[in-house]
Amino acid sequence: MKQSLVLNKVSDLVGTKSIFGKFKIGSFKFDGNKILRKFLIPALSILLFVGLWHTGSKALFQMEADYKIEKALTDQGREAAEAMQACIASGDVSCQPNTLPSPSQVWQSLQSLIADHKVISADKKAFAEKTAGINAKREAEGKAPITYTGRPSFVDQIFTSLKTVFAGFLLALIIAVPIGIVIGLSPVLRSSFNWLIQIFKPVSPVVWLLLVFMIVKTMTKDSNSDSAFIISFISVGLCAMWATLVNTAMGVSSVDKDYINVAKVLKLRPLQKVFKVILPSSLPLIFTGLRITLSVAWMVLIAIELLAQSPGLGSFVWEEFQNGAIDSNSKIIVAMFVIGIIGFLLDRLMLTIQNMVSFNKNDAI
Amino acid sequence: MSTTTIESKKNLGTVENGILYPSQVMLDLNDLKKVYPTPKGDYVVLEHLNLQIMKEEFVTIIGHSGCGKTTMLSMIAGLNEISGGNISVLGNPVKGPGPDRGVIFQAPSLMPWMTALQNVLLGVNQVFPHATKSQRNDIAKYYLHKVGLDGAFHKKAQELSQGMQQRVGIARAFAIKPKVLLLDEPFGMLDSLTRGELQDILIEIWNKEKITAVMITHDVDEAIFLADRVVMMTSGPRAKIGDILNIDFERPRTRKAVLEHDDYYTYRKHLIDFLEH
Ligand SMILES: Nc1ncnc2c1ncn2[C@@H]1O[C@H](COP(=O)(O)OP(=O)(O)OP(=O)(O)O)[C@@H](O)[C@H]1O
Ligand SMILES: [Mg+2]
């Protein structure tokens, strides 16, 4: 009873009372509880978050505006100050205080980014249609086709970033899993490589980038390959692979003793032992490692793209920051949310794969 | 101790022309010693342990917790190093683990990511590499059938109950046709009803296959019901064989017949007296 009272209040607040009215009394309690937990509370917390953000950005805007007017007053006198005040109130672009954008500004920026993407896509399509004939001819003559070289849209940047992160993730997987298995199998190797892992694991992404830069720059000197992309995905892979390496080694070295004994009694050959017993039993830990690797890769990617000047969300953020246009700040916030949401989705994806391959469903957290 | 062995009716062997030909000794533990190094110095678990187990014999081992039963069994299995003395199987010294000595562990220790059938096949494939795939499948299925798991061939091991998992463990052990079967409290984790069922299954397959079996148990009734001889170990450290009791019940046995037998309580008292001193 108490439960339903609270619920009614909550639903009044959110304005979804009609939905609740449909429930029968019998199943009401259970369903109500679930809906409350799964939808209403998260929805409320989002509202609260947006509200706080709105108030906060308002206050910051006011502070910045006051400061501007104050400055005009001390520097140029009363008239200038009044002009400034009027200018800020009119919403003129030239004098707007530069601070944390409000939720509605960010929303507008998102809309404009989407509109921009549509324009660029249409442009690209037109370009492709226009050059189709020429390109077919060029191909027949053995020449490289003409490609679109216009500015990439925000959505293009997202896909570039995803491409880089997957390349880095694959690199980490290809390096870390086999090495982890080998190290995990041999206590001698484990203790001899431990120092190396311990030293390299905490090295900052920036340093990895510089290191990779030194090597790749020299190696790609003569070729015309996309060295910014190569540098950034290798750096991402190197930064992110340690969790997989450590987890794989741990999983392989800590296989249940009973399983090892079974393998010994049956006299399984070494390769059979690895593929039939050791690997399957360490899969949950390997996947935990891969999950961490993917989320680290996504996190460092932004910083690395920014530094390597390789296209993607990182350089988008950096360009907007340098650009300093009126909506730059809100575009950065849009990018922040997009980065966060994609990171979350990638993690869910890994969790799903992990649950599919792991024999013990409870192991996946 | 060897005199005790000869006393056993079953193991007397045959007398021909006045010469005694003892039945074949399957397992010979000779002056066995086990030392575990610990931070506080060496810990001698077993010392001067002598035991002979005949072909086709079922021996159960009882003793206080921590006396070294598991240690002894894992040394026979070749999973634990021998510190002194030796163990031989049909006269060949044990040098490491091998499928001639099947083990059923206390925990079922099936690979949880494999099905019941795959778990049994893991061993069968190893021991019968030249058989065809369908022959190997038949062997595995035969033993799974024997332990009453007809409907569970393709269930993942982790989806099976403890009792069913241990059934797979029994099937896996018999399916590799070992010379010796080593069992370390295989039914210790099961409730008494399941335990009784599995004892029946075990003894039924054993009656058929006549594999030499050595089984550790904490349960005096189980020890009597299953065994030709019950081996009692003294408490550690430096544990050895304290006493051996011959169980002269007819085989095949039924639980009812055993419980109603006149000697049953004499045997039982003998074992409990030993454990309480
Ligand atoms: N790896 C080891 N290192 C040191 N000591 C050990 C080791 N394994 C066993 N022990 C010790 O050796 C003794 C015998 O152990 P064991 O497991 O063989 O006993 P058990 O008779 O099987 O006992 P339980 O009936 O409880 O299973 C115990 O005191 C135990 O603490
Ligand atoms: Mg034990």
Automatic annotation (TrEMBL), chain A:
<dbReference type="InterPro" id="IPR035906">
    <property type="entry name" value="MetI-like_sf"/>
</dbReference>
<comment type="similarity">
    <text>Belongs to the binding-protein-dependent transport system permease family.</text>
</comment>
<dbReference type="Pfam" id="PF00528">
    <property type="entry name" value="BPD_transp_1"/>
</dbReference>
<dbReference type="GO" id="GO:0005886">
    <property type="term" value="C:plasma membrane"/>
</dbReference>
<dbReference type="InterPro" id="IPR000515">
    <property type="entry name" value="MetI-like"/>
</dbReference>
<feature type="transmembrane region" description="Helical">
    <location>
        <begin position="39"/>
        <end position="61"/>
    </location>
</feature>
<dbReference type="GO" id="GO:0055085">
    <property type="term" value="P:transmembrane transport"/>
</dbReference>
<feature type="transmembrane region" description="Helical">
    <location>
        <begin position="330"/>
        <end position="351"/>
    </location>
</feature>
<keyword id="KW-0813">Transport</keyword>
<keyword id="KW-1003">Cell membrane</keyword>
<feature type="transmembrane region" description="Helical">
    <location>
        <begin position="228"/>
        <end position="250"/>
    </location>
</feature>
<protein>
    <submittedName>
        <fullName>ABC transporter permease</fullName>
    </submittedName>
</protein>
<feature type="transmembrane region" description="Helical">
    <location>
        <begin position="165"/>
        <end position="189"/>
    </location>
</feature>
<keyword id="KW-0472">Membrane</keyword>
<keyword id="KW-0812">Transmembrane</keyword>
<feature type="transmembrane region" description="Helical">
    <location>
        <begin position="195"/>
        <end position="216"/>
    </location>
</feature>
<feature type="domain" description="ABC transmembrane type-1">
    <location>
        <begin position="158"/>
        <end position="350"/>
    </location>
</feature>
<keyword id="KW-1133">Transmembrane helix</keyword>
TrEMBL record, chain B:
<dbReference type="GO" id="GO:0015112">
    <property type="term" value="F:nitrate transmembrane transporter activity"/>
</dbReference>
<keyword id="KW-0547">Nucleotide-binding</keyword>
<dbReference type="InterPro" id="IPR050166">
    <property type="entry name" value="ABC_transporter_ATP-bind"/>
</dbReference>
<dbReference type="Pfam" id="PF00005">
    <property type="entry name" value="ABC_tran"/>
</dbReference>
<dbReference type="GO" id="GO:0005886">
    <property type="term" value="C:plasma membrane"/>
</dbReference>
<keyword id="KW-1003">Cell membrane</keyword>
<keyword id="KW-0813">Transport</keyword>
<dbReference type="InterPro" id="IPR003593">
    <property type="entry name" value="AAA+_ATPase"/>
</dbReference>
<keyword id="KW-0067">ATP-binding</keyword>
<dbReference type="InterPro" id="IPR027417">
    <property type="entry name" value="P-loop_NTPase"/>
</dbReference>
<dbReference type="InterPro" id="IPR017871">
    <property type="entry name" value="ABC_transporter-like_CS"/>
</dbReference>
<dbReference type="InterPro" id="IPR003439">
    <property type="entry name" value="ABC_transporter-like_ATP-bd"/>
</dbReference>
<protein>
    <submittedName>
        <fullName>ABC transporter ATP-binding protein</fullName>
    </submittedName>
</protein>
<dbReference type="InterPro" id="IPR005890">
    <property type="entry name" value="NO3_transporter_ATP-bd-like"/>
</dbReference>
<feature type="domain" description="ABC transporter">
    <location>
        <begin position="27"/>
        <end position="260"/>
    </location>
</feature>
<keyword id="KW-0472">Membrane</keyword>
<dbReference type="GO" id="GO:0005524">
    <property type="term" value="F:ATP binding"/>
</dbReference>
<dbReference type="GO" id="GO:0016887">
    <property type="term" value="F:ATP hydrolysis activity"/>
</dbReference>
